[in-house]
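[Q] Does anyone have a clean structure-token version of this?
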Amino acid sequence: MCGIAGILNYQGCIDVDVVNRMLTRIRHRGPDESGIYCNNEIVMGNVRLSIIDIASGQQPLSDPSGRYWIVFNGELFNYIELREELSKKGYSFRTKSDTEVVVQLFACYGHNALSKMNGQFVFSIWDKQTKTLFIARDRMGIRPLFYHYRNGVFTFGSEIKAIFENNAISRELDRFSLSQIYTFWTAITPNTVYKDIFELSPGHFMTIDHKGIKTSRYWSLSFNRERKFSSIDEAVEEFDSLFTDAVKIRLRADVEVAAYLSGGIDSTVTTAYIKQIEPSVLHTFSIGFQENEFDETKYQLEASKYLNTDHKAISCNSREIACDFPKVIWHSESPMMRTAPVPMYQLSRLVRANNIKVVITGEGADEMLAGYDIFKETEIRNFWARNPKSKFRPLLLRRLYPYIPQIQNATPLMLKMFYGFKLEDIGNPYYSHLLRWNNAAHIRKHFHPQISKELNGYDPVSEVERTLPAGFSTWGSLEKAQWLETTIFMSGYLLSSQGDRVAMGNSVEGRYPFLDYRVIEFCASLPPEFKLRGLTEKYLLKKVVKGKIPENIIKRTKQAYRAPISSTFLKPDAPDYVAEILSEKTTRETGIFNPATILPLLQKMRKSPVTSEVENMILTIIVSTHLVHDQFINKNCETLTPELILKSKIINDN
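[A] Here you go.
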């Protein structure tokens, strides 16, 4: 795992020191070593977190001919098999690294090499002969890549803060992207919250040459089911085989690999498979909360005992979350709706404190095997819509959220007020997500009048329409919901703010067996009833792991991972920055929100003993947006003094 950055300018005049500063800014992604390649057109570099071939896997690295130079962020998990394939074709290798396999694979197959790669990655390859830069991102967007292009100068980096080290690039929040984030929790790629800063979309590659930029898609998630299963037992057997190999190749490392245990079925399953493949000592890590409604410690300890792991945990409280929230915004670089990424950041800090660089986690199972409540919620709303006047059908919603007192105590009328948004609009392609998007979009009502004027009625949903794949309209309601959840929420928010950014903020690499593309494509081929049967989520997975993990964890009610919000920011003992960031002065100076509506809302929340989910989202988005503005627009961040600047090894190829 690493970070990469660079500048391409066919007019020359690239300052190597600027790229070195870019790498310094993301040194948390690769604290072990750094290197830079430069010639007359390009300067690109890498900061390395050494995991595979620690002794000789330094970057930048070239193929034997010296034509292709690569900087690589991520892992190629099937590099051993691909190395053997290339060796049979006559290719020779100087290192044992997966990075060298990637550059040689590209030398052999060009962009078609991507279809052979099983991994989580972004890489940049400079072709000296054609003077062309090639950049590619993994299928699900597990690893990030951002860029800026103007007047023939292309600047790129694993994080946006690296790009901003190029002082020629202006800093401004994009109003339209803010509107998207305040609807979907994320901007729709290639957009980011910053004007003129873009993200390479998952499953895409791009080429940059004298003519400009060309972006192409090489993979997309599809639910066009073409295969048939004779029985669910056949599907169980095939999934077990695929998932075993997905876990096995993610254990490849020259350092220790640990695992997260959340107390839910997904992380318990991945841990069980690890122990099945490698029965030796396995370190596991988890998050507990001092507030009982968020805590899953009981199940974490049960899983650890059952699987015989060496377990460590942290216990989070509201004040600690508030103290670390600005750090998480710094690493995430974007406003957010929830405080949930903060405990994940604290957990990766615990992992790193135990001298571990790699953890395997359960992300992806909920999306691909229909584990989230939003999928069951859609089924209930569909059922309810057939008889919208029913007093009993909305009560089914209580079964989904036993851990939320407001829902358990709600009357049918109250449930209809909250869950009845466009209840009968079942023909809408976004039916599953209309309620969530509407609830999140309440914050847009609090935009500063000038921003509302600039947006001029802009509807963020129009951005989703342009991304829909062929065949979307023919899919079933569950499959449409899965596509929306996976390609928007998971790729844009979950794998970023709760994944790559908070882990790499502490120099820890997360690996995700459920996001092996073979597992994804298999799950997409399953009939809906194999994933969601009635209100039983992840039906197939529960059959797969019966007898492999505790029965209590298989049968427990799904509990969404959440963290406290109102008690984090509104308690009297909150850190000093909170009062400052929520003040009228900051609100007026930042100019994003309307003080006339925001300040009374905050005053109401301070006085109320109970705050709603929507109010909590608004509170978090105000704090996080103001922090983004302060850190990235006002530049109130760590100053890169001379003693902090990396001493990168420089390869001059002029």
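[Q] Thanks! Anything notable?
[A] The domain at 232-369+484-555 is CATH 3.40.50.620 (Rossmann fold).
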